[in-house]
Amino acid sequence: MAFPTAQHMPPQPHAQPFQPSFPPPAGAYQQPGFMSSNVGPSPAMSAGQSTRGQVVAAAPRTSTPAASHPQASTPKPEAQAKFPPGDRSHLPAEWKPIVAALSASVDQAKKFAAPGQKRMVDDSDRRLSQLFDLMNCDEVKLKDKMKPVFDQLVAHIASRQFPAALQCQAELMTINSDITSHLVGVKHLINVLKTLPQ
Question: At a CB cut-off of 8 Å and minimum separation 6, what does 49 contact?
Fold first, then answer.
């Protein structure tokens, strides 16, 4: 029995790995998370966003002029007296007898006033000292009108006519309201003196 003759098969070459005939796209073999410098930003990325690994330059600041504030007005220095407080060496001649008489009355009140009147005596002394400072600097206004009334006032105090002395004090306040605070000391002094024994 005849068998068919086996056909001779030519040897097959070994299979070769697939090699692409064109270069791979850029970034195909890069590791995840690494961005190549050749790859541009994604089209979906907005113009105002920054990409990882890139530094976006900040917009330059525009300096705005500071708001102008009105300067506070500098307070004017207080006018200084021509002579220091307590100085009596520059008293005008017309004021010397007035200051001497009222000073003597203040000393009398300090010596003989009751303890409960000490505060009133001290207040009178302080106010009259300020009045004497004005007289020493010759800064009492309307001196020609006030001098005759002051003469009557000290005369009434010396004769213990205290109601008449209080009327002179009120008249002085009407003539010159600039020294009202100082003339209150005269009123306190009269009220203390009328309580002292003769």
Answer: none
User: How confident is the model over 119-128, as pLDDT tens digits?
Assistant: 999 999 999 9
Measured distance CA(106)–CA(190) in Å, rounded = 10
Beta strands in 17-166 (DSSP E): none
Rg (CA), the chain: 55
Separation CA 161–CA 167 (nearest Å): 10
Pair of tokens at residue 91: 């008293």
Residues 150/183, Cβ–Cβ less than 8 Å: no
CA dihedral 89, 93, 95, 98 (to 10 degrees): 100
* Residue 128: count of CB within 10 angstroms of its CB: 22
> Per-residue pLDDT tens for 142-189?
999 999 999 999 999 999 999 999 999 999 999 999 999 999 999 999
